[in-house]
């Protein structure tokens, strides 16, 4: 039996559940010994802002249970303007931030599914480039980027810390 998943815009009533998923991700990064997301970011205000600005998307199953969260942003990311390296394109881009997967219950492959599901949204809005970054020690996300054809472009800095930056140019 094939599982039915869809990506939908997050609503105000999803806010607490999304924050719970992000707290799971924060705890997981801490357990893995990472400094990523251990400085008070992200937080409930970030989630509220994502929802208000319509950046927030949730991956849901056939029962509308939330399996994962992502912020899909079409505004320029200031940190991406100062890359130590080179982006693949100079065109307008979508930025992916705060991708987190519900661990209760954990469904394998949700992060990959979300990364694939944002591509048609980007194309429909006329964005043929997706940029994303992660911590050097986030092995799970680094594997997803590699599997989906994202190209390492260099380093960007968030809150004083270097992050690995990737881009994928989508076919028109």
TrEMBL record:
<feature type="domain" description="N-acetyltransferase">
    <location>
        <begin position="5"/>
        <end position="172"/>
    </location>
</feature>
<dbReference type="InterPro" id="IPR000182">
    <property type="entry name" value="GNAT_dom"/>
</dbReference>
<protein>
    <submittedName>
        <fullName>GNAT family N-acetyltransferase</fullName>
    </submittedName>
</protein>
<dbReference type="Pfam" id="PF00583">
    <property type="entry name" value="Acetyltransf_1"/>
</dbReference>
<dbReference type="InterPro" id="IPR016181">
    <property type="entry name" value="Acyl_CoA_acyltransferase"/>
</dbReference>
């Amino acid at each position: 039996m094939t599982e039915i998943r869809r990506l939908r815009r997050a609503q105000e009533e999803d806010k607490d559940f999304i924050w719970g998923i992000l707290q799971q991700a924060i705890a997981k990064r801490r357990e893995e010994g990472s400094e990523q997301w251990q400085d008070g970011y992200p937080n409930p205000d970030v989630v509220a802002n994502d929802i208000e600005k319509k950046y927030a998307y949730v991956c849901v199953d056939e029962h509308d249970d939330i399996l994962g969260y992502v912020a899909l942003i079409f505004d320029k990311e200031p940190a991406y303007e100062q890359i130590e390296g080179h982006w693949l394109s100079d065109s307008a881009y979508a930025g992916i931030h705060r991708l987190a997967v519900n661990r209760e219950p954990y469904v394998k492959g949700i992060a990959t599914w979300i990364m694939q599901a944002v591509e048609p949204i980007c194309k429909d809005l006329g964005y043929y480039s997706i940029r994303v970054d992660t911590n050097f020690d986030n092995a799970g996300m680094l594997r997803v980027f590699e599997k989906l054809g994202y190209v390492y472009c260099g380093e960007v800095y968030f809150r004083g810390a270097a992050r690995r930056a990737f881009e994928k140019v989508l076919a028109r």
